[in-house]
Amino acid sequence: MTAVARPTSSSTASGWIRGRLFPNVASGIVTVLLFPLLIYLAYRAFLFIVVNGRWDVIRRNLNLFMQGTFPRDEQWRILVQIILMAMAVGVGGATASAAAADRTREAGIATRRQRPTATLRRFGPLILFVLVLLYFATTANPWLFVLAVVSAGLLGSAARFLPPRLRHLGWLIAVLALIVGFQAVSGTTGRSWLATAILVSIGVWLSVRQEGLSPLARLATKTALVALAAGVVYGIYTVVTVPGIGWDKWSGLHLTLWVSALAIVLSFPLGLLLALARRSTLPALRVLATGYIELIRGVPLITLLFMGQFILGFMLPAGSSLSSISRAIAAMTLFTAAYVAEIVRGGLQALPYGQTEAAQALGLTPGRTMRLIILPQALRAVIPAMVGQFISIFKDSSLLYILAINEFLGVRSLVHAQADFRSVAHAETLVFVALGYWAFAYSMSRESQRLERRLRVGL
Predict the structure, then answer these.
(1) What radius of gyration, in Å, describes the C-alpha atoms of the chain?
(2) Is 76 strand, coil or helix?
(3) Do the Cβ atoms of 225 and 208 come closer than 8 Å?
(4) What is the CA 136 to chain-centroid distance, rounded?
(5) Rounded Cα–Cα distance for residues 182 and 202 (Å)
(6) Cβ atoms of residues 373 and 359 within 8 Å
(7) What is the pLDDT of residues 76-115, one digit of tens each?
(8) Does residue 263 contact residue 75 with C-beta atoms inside 8 Å?
(9) Can you say whether the dihedral through the CA atoms of 185, 186, 189, 193 is positive or negative?
(10) Residue 149, CB half-sphere, CA atoms under 13 Å: how many?
(11) What is the pTM of this model?
């Protein structure tokens, strides 16, 4: 009679140690060899953080790291912008969650809301970074500001209570908050009204439903309401004119986040179009897309950044001027789009041709086949690679320091130009900047993994 080994319980400390650290002989040897090294590294880190580190360099320059050389009397703009961004995130997240709940209810599947502890774990890296910032704060103002940001996010989450037929208004409110938040710093003069007018017009077009009218009357009604909405937006922007702060005054972590976000948002549709163009049956379009992708992927990003600074101006009409930051965003967008195109093309090629044949058998046009059948599956399959590329371009934004643009890493040069920190505390500032990059990059990675689990990528 063979004896059956009793399972090791992981509910106790000894059971957890045996199951995780000593499950077999090989793992036990590795644990014994690595344990002293980990203890030593932890001891050195403790000495650096608690005993030897000169963290007053962060405490005295916290505002410089966050906002850089932004004018002190105009910093209220950044505060308003962040509050509006938090509201947009709250509205967008609540709308997406409510829409998903609507779909699951329609499918007859029970839903359950996410626990607060799960939300805290979800945004753990960012919460840790915020707590570090609050630790270095010398006044109560940062605490009050964080409270205002959290309140704005919670207020925006009330969008989940919108009725299902008005669910799309949540997305309209979220994007409007993003645009207005950006314009709180960039200003509302010039053609800044155009983006808001287009967005409001699209929202009005999708919201208006005229039952019982002929197609021509419905089209005329929607067109009139869209024109009225655009006119109202133009009138508001004509009356409310707020001069903006130019890109040349933006710096610090504030600049890093905006440059990265704009490069990511602009590169995705461009990369998607390039991927479709490379698979096109039109030879000229396919050759142009292939040439662009291979050329950009064969050139380092820093080269494109220098070309954007010194060559892009010759390609623009006479009299037009782009700031150095705008040129950097253009270079980063063009660079990322080439990699996004190859990632999307890989996802498209991974799908069997039977998907297209099945759509053709159902009578779908090529455009509807690509939009409804092929692209959703291809983009779902390449989520890990896509987010990895976005994380890479976020970290590569530190290359702007070479162009004398004081982003998050470049602010260190301003800090160490001060007499008190000219030759000391270099490691401390590097660790602080690295923590900031890690918090945002790891949060992006965790959101990618969460999206993969929800979409069952790889299954």
Answers:
(1) 26
(2) helix
(3) yes
(4) 26
(5) 20
(6) yes
(7) 999 999 999 999 999 988 888 888 887 777 777 766 666 7
(8) no
(9) negative
(10) 17
(11) 0.87
